[in-house]
Amino acid sequence: MKPIFIDGYSSHRRMLVALLLSGVFIYCDHKLASFEVARGYLQSLVSPLQYIASTPKQIMDYASDNLVSHKQLMLDNQRLKMNVLMLYEQLLELDILKQENDRLRKLLASPLRNPLKKMVAEILAVDSDPYSHQIVINRGINDGIYEGQPVIDETGVVGQILHVGANNSRVLLITDITHAIPLRVHRNGVRVIASGTGSINQMEVNHIAHSTDIRVGDLLVTSGLGGKFPEGYPVATVSYISENPNKQFARIRVQPIVEMNRLRYLLLLWPHQTPLVESQNDKLLSSNQQTRQVADEG
Amino acid sequence: MKAKNNNSVILFTLVISLILTIMPLPIGVDAFRPNWALLVVAYWSIALPHRVNVLFAWMIGFIIDVLLGSILGINAFATALVVYVTANNYQKIRNFSLWQQSFIIGLLAALYHLIIFWLQRFIFDVDFSVSYLKPVLTSAAIWPVVFLLLRKIRRQFRVQ
Fold first, then answer.
1. Which domains are delineated in chain B?
2. How many CA atoms lie within 13 A of B49 on its CB side?
3. Domain boundaries, position A152
4. Nearest residue of A to residue B65, measured between CA atoms
5. How open is the CA angle B79-B85-B91, to the nearest 5 degrees?
6. What chain B residue is nearest to A40 in terms of C-alpha separation?
């Protein structure tokens, strides 16, 4: 038997409470920085849902990884071996350059660049919210992740950590409308700030005078000035510059190098920590020498 | 006769809808993802307005906020407002035919997305794009399926 008259508070009063609650939460979440802690707890609370929701995708990935033909594997293997050979060659060169760079930096009495601590993370979820560009990754406070940590992939800078949960955390992408990143032009060192536009393949560089030497196709790399992102990682290329002298500043659009809709594995960086293990280059080089010996013998 | 209290059925359908809300999809399909949680909450508020009320809807919206990483309270408010409309007009909506209900749900979904857009505009100064309203079409189109399925579930488990 359904009641005709609903008892308890009327829905008008409930709506008023909902309105007040929303107002309080929107204000707190937007204005108070201390609310991040609560956000972190909530993030950990809903993480089971996120793990469940990403299961079908992971099963599909697993299936597509496993169901490949023998021929395909052979081809891949060959291609990867060639790649490894090329990369080792470059690594050798890099090592020499690095030593030389360190020596020169010592001569100039500028601080040495230490190798950074890194960690690989996998994407759990991509937000379907069209207003924010965020992704969820499978690392949290238990892995030593902290808020504001830089996140990159193999091509360039992806974003920074926004909220940290126990076992998962949220990454704010550089294309989000609330994100801005200090950069410099790789060619001549002009310093700029690129902010996200909310579009996945476009960012803007604001407040640049018309006379500044920036051309279409220039590579922008992190300048390391904000203290968040380490210096020298590629971020974007200049795609469009308006030549309208009536405007006070030039309108410059840049395109992020990272393909934000094709992310899968990410690298987390600790700019202020050096890795405890011996440097990876040394390991790779020693294994490289071993493989060469094997190759020579064969 | 004492009414059975099958809260778990309502909660189960809502959890499924929340999982569908955040399930990763290919980017082309993703823009057309129906508002599953909104549809399910709207159904329960029409079917059982004394059980699923505005504050309950607000809490579901709040969970969506946490899951999607939007500013806390935005989805919550929009969901609560939609359920405020459905819960106040549940007798009228029940008497509409299925396609008329679809139309109404489409309107409410449009209201939902516009409220979210207005709040975002108020806070972040985002620009409007018609693609924000793509889920309205799919939500309205999928409503008959959701309605019939949930009615079957409700009758099967005698949720009252």
1. 7-157 (1.10.1760)
2. 24
3. 116-273
4. A129
5. 130
6. B66
A18 and B76 within 8 Å at the Cβ level: the answer is yes
Could you give the residue ranges of the DSSP H alpha helices within B23-133?
A: 27-30, 36-47, 54-68, 74-88, 90-95, 98-124
The H-or-E segment that residue A188 falls in is: none
For residue B117, list chain A residues with Cβ-Cβ distance below 8 A: 131
Domain membership flag for residue A237: yes
Secondary structure letter of residue A197 according to DSSP:
-
B74 touches chain A (CB under 8 A): yes
Determine contact, residues B5/B158, Cβ cutoff 8 Å.
Answer: no
Q: Is residue A281 part of a domain?
A: no
Structure tokens at B117: 């857009």
B77-94 tens-digit pLDDT: 999 999 999 988 999 999
Structurally, chain A folds into a number of domains equal to 2
Q: Is A52 on the interface with B (CB under 8 A)?
A: yes
* ipTM for the predicted complex: 0.83
Note whether A136 and A263 are same-domain residues.
Answer: yes
pTM for the full predicted model = 0.72
CA B19 to chain CA centroid, Å, is 13
